[in-house]
Amino acid sequence: MWRFMSIQNRNELLCTVNRISCVINRKGCYRHLSRTSVLSVTDNTSIIQQLQKVEGGKIKLEKFDDSKIAVLTIDNERIRNALSGSMMVQLRDAINQLEEWKEGKGVILIGASSTFCSGADLNLAKQFNSPEHGEAMCELMQTTLTRLKRLPMISLAVIEGKALGGGAELTTACDFRLISKNAEIRFVHVKRGVTPGWGGGSRLVNIVGRRMALRLLAGSIKITAKDALQYGLADDIISSDQVTLHAGMNWLKKIIDGPVNSIRGIKQIVTYADDLGTDQALQFERSVFTTVWGAPALMESLETKKKY
Ligand SMILES: CC[C@H](C(=O)O)C(=O)SCCNC(=O)CCNC(=O)[C@H](O)C(C)(C)COP(=O)(O)OP(=O)(O)OC[C@H]1O[C@@H](n2cnc3c(N)ncnc32)[C@H](O)[C@@H]1OP(=O)(O)O
């Protein structure tokens, strides 16, 4: 159910869709989806505080005002960038900051030390392996990665080395993926007797289709760079002589070369079309369009005769 709560003024439209509340305004064309995610939110605070005690590594967030691109680095070199409990909470906090960055157009997710991420820190599973801990970890990561995917910025995972298990799932939470020539993505969950839990199984179906997703997940197939390109899981291969972050920045800049409000509005329209039915998505598209129609970027573009 799509309900326009109110037109607070010409520049702001508060609307709610199935408990997803967002404010669409001329400035950022978006405040963002409410923090109460679409998933059923139960209070796992105390369990998350326990998970957080499995420390190690860090999630680094850098925002570049010139390019309007943020870089999220997964950094836990000692254990091949596996995500500790404290890193999972840091990732959530970094997404909180990105939701408030109204000028951002792009975000890159990359691993430190020439590898991507080897999944969840297995020490977590050794210390906290009750169903409640599993549920709390999954809800934290699913909610965080859904919010990453829904940021009104175009996101790109730059994959070097290995993306295994939860690390492979992280790649599916971005809009695009660049992969180094010798890199490998592998959904190893079944080898550990588990399944995807961070939302990567559901997202993979939308990326490569039902049959291929089933093969890659159940078969735990090693996905090389060439395979990933062929399956549609990667959008380009980075040659080995390129510095991956620079290659990622250059690739993303080509996609976000437009006014902030247009880029952010386009990403939102695509997100809503992906997440909602056609009628609601069209209605949302109209509501976004009304925030950029007549805005400075359009009026400036009319001042010069542009031919494309
Ligand atoms: C929903 C998410 C899902 C879940 O929670 O169920 C998961 O993600 S489960 C985790 C899935 N990932 C794995 O099973 C990866 C296991 N690790 C490896 O395959 C290898 O370590 C590899 C390929 C990542 C790196 O191999 P390499 O030969 O380069 O180095 P080492 O194997 O010696 O590893 C170095 C050091 O890192 C530790 N390590 C690696 N991955 C993890 C991890 N995921 N959790 C904790 N520790 C990890 C490894 O044990 C070595 O430490 P050391 O103290 O020397 O034993």
Automatic annotation (TrEMBL):
One GO CC term on file: cytosol
EC category: lyase
A GO biological-process term: fatty acid beta-oxidation
Key words of the record: Cytoplasm, Lyase
Localization in the cell: Cytoplasm, Cytosol
GO molecular function: methyl/ethyl malonyl-CoA decarboxylase activity
This enzyme's EC code(s): 4.1.1.94
SUPFAM superfamilies assigned to the protein according to its UniProt record, in alphabetical order: ClpP/crotonase
Reactions it catalyzes: (2R)-ethylmalonyl-CoA + H(+) = butanoyl-CoA + CO2; (2S)-ethylmalonyl-CoA + H(+) = butanoyl-CoA + CO2; (S)-methylmalonyl-CoA + H(+) = propanoyl-CoA + CO2
Principal location class: cytoplasm
Pfam families, per the entry: ECH_1
Role noted for this protein: Decarboxylates ethylmalonyl-CoA, a potentially toxic metabolite, to form butyryl-CoA, suggesting it might be involved in metabolite proofreading. Acts preferentially on (S)-ethylmalonyl-CoA but also has some activity on the (R)-isomer. Also has methylmalonyl-CoA decarboxylase activity at lower level.
Assigned protein family: Belongs to the enoyl-CoA hydratase/isomerase family.
Name under which the protein is recorded: Ethylmalonyl-CoA decarboxylase
Natural source organism: Trichoplax adhaerens
